[in-house]
């Protein structure tokens, strides 16, 4: 048997791809055998999915082939879905085979958290993948066509978005920008279209200063969004939702953005988890497993204020870099380094030419914040693919 340690990375999202890229730079020839497992041949930008979902940008601007991001002489790419993780046997069961490992990186991403709301998993759509985004976009266009062809039923042009966090706010902003184009295309009076954003919490965009939240809601209200704050969705139906107040909103389109949990494969593998997220140690390792690292949406880390860090792309990227460093350190019998999150700032898009942002102690809104969003997107493209990728995905500039 080969004495070269086997590293298996599950998932090529923000955390997984950064782990693979940093490993291929840091490892010497024949120092480790690295395999990256992903269900698709492409890496996609989760933080950009709200735009093609609404139809304001092309799907092709949200993804890049993994083969363009890794050196396939150093990283083996396996296109497959993970079925099971067997920690006792140090094996990963795929849909079409089995992989053994010495070190495992679980970067499988998250899943929608429905909080047990009846009907939500059956009738609501989610913005979580390229295919789900394609479905939402085509569904929205189909509803306008049905409205014109089936007696102008109002539910076809009522849209309910559950959740007013980043994903929800950014999606309703893009949807509000798209509606006038769809109305013109299908000859529908724009004043008849309704976009409802429903949020159980008392405020939108958690983590932002109240004045930025107020600005965001004012911008979107002017674009035609109706906010229902501090009220939960009680039940999701085939033709709408029932709110906790008893109000029923008829709608043929329900998009859920109200929460993320870790991948269920993590719980099934026997890790102690809360909503699919494992409280990892300071080196990103799973409790009781020095050879297993969990990063991204599946990891739970507590910030200095005693609250969990939100599962963002920014933290997943930094975890990927730290994870790669600690894998190399373990192979070389060196000291690992503690993960310390460095907050580069937070930006939320509010559609065409609008946004809100927090960078350090400074806040921004309007056009300048929208440009900061583009800078953030371009920076990520540069990190994973250099200038050629930034230029190719020109929509980010």
UniProtKB/TrEMBL annotation:
This is NAD(P)/FAD-dependent oxidoreductase. Residues 6-320 form the FAD/NAD(P)-binding domain. The lineage of its organism: Bacteria, Bacillati, Bacillota, Bacilli, Bacillales. Belongs to the NADH dehydrogenase family. Its cofactor is FAD. One of its GO terms (biological process) is aerobic electron transport chain. GO terms for molecular function: NAD(P)H dehydrogenase (quinone) activity. It comes from the Bacteria. Keywords: FAD, Flavoprotein, Oxidoreductase. Signal peptide: none annotated. It comes from Paenibacillus agri. It holds the Pfam family Pyr_redox_2. SUPFAM superfamilies: FAD/NAD(P)-binding domain.
């Amino acid at each position: 048997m080969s004495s070269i340690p086997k590293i298996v990375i599950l998932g090529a999202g923000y955390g997984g791809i950064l782990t693979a890229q940093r490993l291929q730079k840091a490892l010497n020839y024949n120092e480790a055998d690295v395999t990256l497992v992903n269900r698709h041949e492409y890496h996609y930008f989760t933080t950009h999915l709200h735009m093609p979902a609404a139809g304001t940008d092309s799907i092709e601007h949200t993804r890049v082939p993994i083969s363009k991001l890794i050196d396939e002489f150093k990283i083996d790419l396996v296109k497959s879905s993970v079925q099971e993780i067997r920690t006792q046997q140090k094996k990963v069961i795929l849909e079409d085979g089995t992989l053994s490992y010495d070190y495992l990186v679980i970067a499988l991403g998250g899943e929608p958290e429905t909080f047990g709301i009846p009907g939500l998993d059956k009738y609501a759509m989610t913005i979580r993948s390229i295919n789900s985004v394609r479905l939402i976009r085509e569904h929205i266009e189909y509803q306008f066509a049905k409205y014109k062809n089936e007696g102008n039923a109002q539910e076809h042009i009522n849209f309910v978005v559950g959740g007013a966090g980043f994903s929800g706010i950014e999606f309703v902003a893009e949807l509000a920008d798209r509606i006038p184009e769809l109305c013109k295309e299908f000859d529908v009076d724009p004043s008849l279209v309704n976009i409802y954003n429903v949020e159980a919490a008392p405020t939108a965009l958690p983590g932002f200063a109240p004045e930025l939240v107020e600005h965001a809601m004012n911008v979107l209200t002017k674009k035609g969004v109706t906010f229902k704050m501090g009220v939960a969705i009680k039940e999701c139906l085939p033709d709408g939702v029932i709110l906790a107040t008893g109000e029923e909103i008829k709608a043929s389109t329900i998009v859920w953005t109200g929460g993320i949990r870790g991948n269920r494969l993590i719980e099934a593998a026997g890790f102690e988890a809360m909503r699919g997220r494992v409280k990892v140690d300071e080196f990103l390792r799973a409790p009781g497993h020095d050879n297993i690292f969990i990063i991204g949406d599946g990891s739970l880390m507590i910030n200095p204020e005693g609250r969990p860090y939100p599962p963002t792309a920014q933290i997943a990227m930094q975890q990927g870099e730290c994870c790669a460093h600690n894998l190399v350190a373990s192979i070389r019998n060196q000291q690992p380094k503690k993960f310390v999150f460095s907050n580069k700032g937070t930006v939320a898009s509010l559609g065409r030419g609008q946004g809100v942002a927090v960078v350090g102690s400074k806040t921004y809104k309007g056009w300048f914040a929208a440009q900061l969003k583009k800078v953030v997107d371009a920076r990520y493209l540069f990190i994973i693919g250099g200038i050629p990728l930034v230029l190719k995905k020109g929509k980010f500039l």
